[in-house]
Amino acid sequence: MRLVPFVIALLALVLGLALGGCANLNSAEQRMVSGAAIGGVVGGPIGAGVGAGIGYVVDRNEDQVR
């Protein structure tokens, strides 16, 4: 598989550029990035849980209607 080394190299390049872009942030910008990261980590599982719960309720409701 020749695609795997290319994908790894591409991911390394993107990660390096993303981290390099955060080198000269002031304190307000650092707090914004930290808040966004925390929000993504916390919000992802919460959103997934809410979506699963809504899917369950809708499915149960459709079963009762039939």
- What string, H for helix and E for strand, traces the elements in order? HH
Per DSSP, the total helix count is 2
Which structural class best describes the helix and strand composition? Answer: mainly alpha
What low-confidence regions span 5 or more consecutive residues with pLDDT below 50? none
Provide the β-strand percentage band: under 5%
Q: What is the radius of gyration computed over CA atoms, rounded to a whole number of angstroms? A: 20 Å
Mean pLDDT: 87
Description:
The structure is a single chain. By secondary structure, this protein is mainly α. It has helices at residues 3-20, 27-65.
Summarize the structure.
The chain has 66 residues and is mostly helical.
